[in-house]
Design brief:
The structure holds two protein chains of two kinds. Chain A is mainly beta. Helix content of chain A is 9%, strand content 41%. The longest helix of chain A is centred in the first third of the chain and has 25 residues. Classes of the chains: A mainly beta, B mainly beta.
Chain lengths: 403, 320
């Protein structure tokens, strides 16, 4: 083939391609109406009108807690929780779990019917570590910081705005708890004693309830001023502790003592554990019968909650520890590997019933602490000490198919 | 005059003989037949062993009957000792041993048990983290406050206390109303602290001895978050660093508070090199990976240079 023929064919092809390009440039239309797919976004603003307002798109609040799933054990938060309480602000309103976030002091409420969460206080309480809500959820007592930086405030949650109005308590507080009538019980340290007091956040008044003649006291508060409160020198496996009961201001030495002894109790029963011959053992004490019996579980009392009322129960988080000779110190230090299950002990402390193994039901290994049993013994709340998240176990449910 | 001297000599001789007779009766001689209670000052409801001590063989061949508040203890017939339960707080229990001798003579020995609480509370002036639920333990050289609480039905505040640490009497002797005492933890694993509470008339109400164990201070390491504060769960040997920085806090356990507040040595080392961390808190270090590669050994030491046992050292691995 001649060279001129190649040149002619090449020129024709170039002309055809140029014609197609010109046609597509001026006459072609997009195959669909989505301009974004055809043209790059160069990020120019849509308007220069300063009065223009972005339209607000109303969306349904996303539930953070799955209440539809058929689970009795639920993780309620991913945030670290300083304190919590299940409250019902009025008879017509649904029950909600209020909690305070560690560090920020922000308060959230989880609607237990819908699973929705909303922030009810955005006031920042820097370094919030421990919080205790009043029974009606209106007040909250807060510890910020640790050691020498420790401070205490009582906040009132505003119903109108998501803020917290705070009152500082300038006392060396060592422990605190709320009462059924929305007051706060707390203990302070003096040079040689521990003093129990009550603070009324509505009146800003306080009153002394009792004095215990030692400083390093653990106080297990009752749920009302007139309930039994228990105090003992803080537990240590190398040191002996003695249990004192405070009822109506009178301090009584209970026939309970021992190395590494710690206890919880109500008006009728005491659950306590101690070291006996290098073995950690648990006991139940019936106050009315003055009778002691071996508890059905070997149990760290701080991992239990005892309810009150007509049919009280004790709910405990229990792990079968391989070695118990270092308890309770090793658990206090966070050195004991823990994979807790929930157990229920009857009021007399004679029978223990298995409730749930969180590892099997949720796949999570939990180190359960700070348990609370709600009124009617229907729900059990607790925190996982490893990450301080809040969990709930539905103890009483109408749906028998739940697991 | 001679008569006066003779009378004086006779009188002196007689009084000297009387004194030696008194010592013999009260201090040196032991009753040959007696009941011994162990423990000698039991708590309410505590098991008590009452033993018949017969050093002279007076009870030989006797039929022994034990009575508990007048009731015969059947299972203890002809036994030298009996194990009983002390009664309630504030109550009295009478224990009798009736010896019917082969000669037909009957001897009755008795003792009264009055249960009492004498509790000794040990509060070591050593440091543990504020979030730790337990009690601080004594370490060698640290101060210890001991409190005695006597309760025989009511808390007693009118008593005289004699404190003894091992063989040394504290506070120079008995002190009235001072149910608290402070002492420095002696060297050695354990020491024995004894307190005796007596009524103002000299009657011994209770006595109790306890072991006071001395431990070595230890250190645990905790992550610190600017927002959340100190993480209560300690770092378990190794920390996997997420990001390029981390703040670590060393938390001494059972270190003398005085040493904690004013340590002679408080050193952080990274891979055996002294850290130049100059923050305000000697127990905290902010760890940065700049210039490093691979895992690092992070160690901390706190120590007193005069009391070398008042100190601790530990380390963790930081992986990044």
């Amino acid at each position: 083939m001649k060279r001129s023929v190649f040149i002619i064919i090449g020129v024709v092809l170039v002309l055809v391609l140029v014609s197609v390009w010109v046609y597509v440039l001026f006459f072609s239309t997009p195959s669909n109406g989505n301009d974004d797919e055809q043209f790059g976004d160069l990020n120019f603003q849509d308007t220069t009108d300063s009065d223009y307002q972005e339209p607000v798109i109303e969306t349904e609040p996303e539930p953070v807690v799955d209440v539809q799933a058929n689970q009795r054990l639920r993780q309620l938060t991913t945030r670290q929780v300083a304190g919590y309480r299940e409250v019902q602000t009025s008879t017509s309103s649904p029950r909600e779990a209020r909690y305070m976030e560690v560090g920020t002091g922000h308060i959230y409420a989880i609607n237990l019917s819908t699973g929705e969460e909303k922030r009810i206080s955005g006031t920042t309480i820097t370094g919030a570590q421990v919080a205790e809500f009043s029974e009606n959820g209106q007040y909250v007592m807060i510890q910020t910081g640790f050691g020498a930086q420790k401070e205490f405030v009582v906040g009132e949650i505003s119903l109108e705005s998501s803020t917290l109005s705070n009152t500082e308590l300038a006392e060396p507080i060592t422990s605190f708890s709320s009462t059924k009538d929305n007051r706060f019980l707390y203990s302070i340290q003096t040079t040689a004693s521990t003093i129990g007091k009550v603070f009324d956040p509505a009146e800003y008044t306080n009153e002394t309830l009792f004095t215990i003649p030692f400083r390093e006291a653990s106080v297990e508060w009752g749920s009302d001023i007139t309930d039994s409160h228990y105090a003992y020198p803080k537990a240590a496996r190398e040191l002996e502790s003695f249990l004192f009961r405070v009822k109506n201001g009178v301090v009584t030495r209970m026939p309970i003592d021992g190395y590494g002894m710690s206890a919880i109790g109500n008006d009728n029963y005491i659950l306590y554990s101690k070291q006996v011959n290098n073995e950690y053992r648990s006991y139940y004490y019936d106050i009315n019968l003055e009778k002691e019996s071996i508890a059905p579980l070997t149990q760290i009392p701080e991992k239990c909650a005892m309810s009150e009322g007509e049919s009280p129960v004790t709910i405990c988080a229990n792990t079968e520890y391989e070695f118990t000779s270092l308890l309770p110190d090793s658990w206090y230090k966070g050195e004991t590997a823990t994979a807790d299950s929930l157990w229920e002990i009857n009021s007399a402390g004679t029978r223990g019933g298995f409730l749930i193994n969180p590892e099997l039901s949720s796949g999570r290994v939990l180190n359960i602490s700070r348990l609370q049993i709600t009124a009617g013994n229907s729900n059990v709340y607790f925190t996982n000490q490893s990450d301080q998240t809040l969990w709930m176990y539905q103890r009483i449910t109408a749906d028998v198919t739940q697991n | 005059m001679r008569l006066f001297f003779i009378l004086s000599l006779i009188l002196l001789n007689t009084s000297a003989l009387t004194a030696s007779a008194q010592i013999s009766a009260q201090g040196i001689a032991t009753p040959e037949l007696s009941l011994v209670v162990e423990p000698d000052f039991p708590r309410p409801g505590e098991s008590v062993t009452v033993t018949l001590n017969d050093y002279g063989g007076d009870a030989y061949g006797s039929n022994i009957t034990w009575l508990y508040n007048g009731q015969v203890v059947d299972e203890a017939d002809n036994r030298r000792s009996v194990v009983l339960t002390a009664g309630e707080l504030g109550g009295e229990t009478k224990i009798e041993a009736v010896l019917n001798k082969p000669s037909g003579r009957k001897d009755v020995l008795s003792t009264i048990i009055k249960p009492i609480y004498l509790d000794i509370i040990i509060e070591a002036q050593t440091r543990v983290p504020d979030f730790y639920l337990g009690r601080a333990l004594p370490s060698i050289g640290s101060m210890v406050n001991a409190t005695a609480l006597v309760n025989d039905g009511s808390f007693r505040t009118d008593l005289v206390y004699t404190w003894r640490l091992d063989r040394q009497v504290l506070e120079g002797g008995p002190i009235r109303g001072r149910n608290q005492v402070s002492f420095a933890t002696p060297r050695g694993d354990t020491s024995v602290l004894t307190v005796q509470a007596t009524e103002p008339n000299g009657n011994v109400l209770a006595r109790r001895s306890i072991f006071v164990a001395a431990v070595l201070p230890t250190i645990s390491f905790h992550e610190v978050s600017t927002l959340f504060g100190v993480r209560k769960t300690p770092i378990d040997n190794e920390l996997i660093l997420v990001g390029s920085t981390a703040t670590i806090q060393a938390e001494p356990y059972n270190l003398d508070i005085r040493i904690y507040n004013n340590p002679d040595i408080a050193q952080w080392k990274i891979n055996n090199s002294l850290s130049q961390n100059q923050g305000g808190n000697p127990y905290q270090i902010t760890f940065q990976t700049t210039g490093f590669a691979g895992p690092a050994d992070l160690s901390f030491q706190v120590r007193d240079t005069t009391q070398v046992l008042q100190g601790a050292r530990d380390n963790i691995q930081v992986k990044f």
